[in-house]
Design a protein that fits this description.
295 residues; alpha/beta; TIM Barrel; 8-stranded mixed beta sheet; 3-stranded antiparallel beta sheet
Length: 295
C-alpha cells in the first residue's frame, strides 16, 4: 500500500503485518478467521455457503463458533502458528447481520489486544455498526462492493433484507450501494484501513470496475482486490474470468487505488500463513450440523 494513503504510523505498521493488505506480509504473517456469523441479510447470485472441510473459497467453514468460544480458538491458533497477526471475521454469512462479530471482537480484543482485528462485510449494516466496531478495536475492514450502478448491482443480487423488509431489483441495489458508501465514509473517517473486494463477473460488471474503484476511493477506501467469479449458484453457467480479463480489470482500478494481487480465496475458517498450508482442519476439526439463514 502506498504511503500517501496511510499517513498514520500505526496504520502503516498494521498494513505491513496484515497478509491481506501487503504482498510482503502475505508470505510472512498469518491470519485466523473466526466463523461466528451464520446469517446473511442479502442473497448474491454467485454465493453458495456450505459446511465442509474441502472447498477452498469464501462462504465455507467446517463449523460455526459461538462468540464465547473464540478466545480459546485464538489461543489454539497462536500455538499452531505464532506468526498470526490478524484475527478476522469473514462469515460464513454477513458479519453484521447479527451481533456475533461485535461480541466476538470485544472478547478477543480484551484477551489479545496486540492482534489486529479485521472484519469483512457486504456493508448493508455498516453505517449502524461503524462506531461500535471501532470501539471494540477493529482497525481493518473489507467491504464487498460489486457495483455502484443499481442496474448492474440488481443483476448480481437477488434481494436484501433491510429493517425487516425484503427488497428486490434496483430498489434493493440502490439501498445496498447507498449504505455501503455511507459505511465506507464513516469507517474511513474513524481511521480504519479499508479494502474493497469486487467479484469480477464477465458480461455483468467487468466494464464497470474503473467506476467502482474511483467511487470507493473517493469514499475513503485504501486498497482494492478483484476476486474472479467462481461459477456456482445462479451464476453456475457463467464463465470464470480469464487471466487477461482479470489483469485488464486490475489496470482499470489501479488508475485510482492500489490493487492487491495475492488473494487466496480464503475460507471463513482459514488459519495460518496464506499459501503455506491451511491449518483450519487442525484447529476446527470435524464439521458440525448448523443451518444458514438469509435474514
Amino acid at each position: 500500500m502506498e504511503g500517501k494513503f496511510l499517513e498514520n504510523e500505526e496504520l502503516l505498521r498494521i498494513a505491513k503485518t496484515h497478509p491481506c493488505l501487503s504482498r510482503e506480509a502475505n508470505t510472512a504473517f498469518g491470519r485466523l478467521h473466526l466463523p461466528v456469523s451464520p446469517a446473511c441479510n442479502i442473497q448474491c447470485r454467485f454465493c453458495s455457503r456450505s459446511l465442509n472441510k474441502t472447498e477452498q473459497r469464501p462462504g465455507v467453514t467446517a463449523q460455526i463458533l459461538r462468540p464465547e468460544e473464540a478466545v480459546e480458538k485464538v489461543r489454539q491458533a497462536l500455538e499452531l502458528c505464532p506468526q498470526i497477526t490478524v484475527a478476522g471475521i469473514a462469515g460464513p454469512g454477513d458479519t453484521l447481520a447479527t451481533d456475533s462479530a461485535l461480541r466476538t471482537f470485544r472478547l478477543v480484543h480484551e484477551a489479545y489486544p496486540n492482534l489486529t482485528l479485521c472484519l469483512s462485510t457486504n456493508g448493508l449494516m455498516l453505517p449502524d455498526y461503524a462506531q461500535k466496531l471501532y470501539d471494540v478495536g477493529v482497525r481493518t475492514l473489507t467491504v464487498t462492493v460489486n457495483a455502484v450502478d443499481p442496474e448492474i448491482q440488481a443483476k448480481i443480487i437477488s434481494y436484501i433484507v433491510y429493517d425487516g423488509i425484503r427488497y428486490v431489483g434496483t430498489e434493493a441495489a440502490s439501498i445496498l450501494i447507498r449504505r455501503q458508501l455511507e459505511g465506507i465514509r464513516k469507517m474511513s473517517g474513524l481511521g480504519v484501513i479499508i479494502k474493497i473486494n469486487t467479484v469480477l463477473i464477465p458480461g455483468v460488471n467487468d466494464r464497470h470496475i474503473e467506476t467502482v474503484a474511483k467511487t470507493v476511493r473517493e469514499a475513503g477506501a485504501n486498497i482494492y482486490n478483484i476476486i474472479p467469479l467462481i461459477p456456482q449458484h445462479d451464476f453456475a453457467d457463467y464463465p470464470a474470468p480469464t487471466c487477461l480479463q482479470i489483469e485488464t480489470a486490475r489496470a482499470a482500478a489501479e488508475k485510482y487505488i492500489p490493487v492487491f494481487r495475492h488473494c487466496q480465496h480464503c475460507r471463513a475458517d482459514a488459519c495460518g500463513i496464506p499459501g503455506k498450508g491451511d491449518l483450519s482442519s487442525k484447529l476446527y476439526g470435524q464439521a458440525c450440523a448448523e443451518t444458514f439463514s438469509h435474514g
